[in-house]
Amino acid sequence: MSKNKKLPEIVTAKGIAVYPKLNEPDTKYNKEGVYEVKLTFESADDPAVQAMVKRIEQERDTFFDAKVAELKGEGKGAAAKQLKKADILKPELDKETGDETGRVYIKAKMSASGTREDGTKWTQKPNYFSASGKQLKNPPRIGGGSVLKLGVALKPYVIESSKEVGVTLRLKAVQIISLVSGGSRSFESYGFQAEDGDEIDDAEFDANTSDDDAAGGSAADEDDDL
Predict the structure, then answer these.
(1) Beta-strand pair 147-159/164-178
(2) Whole-number Å distance between alpha carbons of 149 and 175
(3) What pTM did the predictor assign?
(4) Are residues 89 and 101 in contact, defined by beta-carbon separation less than 8 angstroms?
């Protein structure tokens, strides 16, 4: 495979972001910085997810077949037989129990900076777009629970130690379908479901109304019961 060959690009299915590092690169384990996100999907059976996986698998399988042919051509048939295909989707595990939640995920990442062979430095960041397609030069903070689509390039790989053949998703762009920022969480992320009941709107702030009044009583009222 040519080193300079343009990688194929796809748009992922719509998913929910977990621990996104999309506004600033994460430098905890890589001083040059990495933009990254785990994108979760409610079910591997979703047609959009299945279509995405099928396209990624095509790249994996083509690379796998080429690698097998290469090894056999070099007289390394035994090594060719050791190759195995990595799953595209990974099962999400519950943090506390370690059990599978039923959801699945992919990961995408982009190196934030580096050094060229001639010693010059380079930097990059993803392109950001709104749900309607407007490009965002200064995007809002993208928090966990945000609903996103990702533009990614597909880069096949083989891990020599494990003989595993897979595909890395190189992050290119982010489409923000539904935004969660500032540490807030969505209605669905808590496990709530819509119910019949009173339709409540945010109350207008009244400086003359205390928290106790809003709660329907005061500290003095509670003391009377003692």
Answers:
(1) antiparallel
(2) 5
(3) 0.78
(4) no
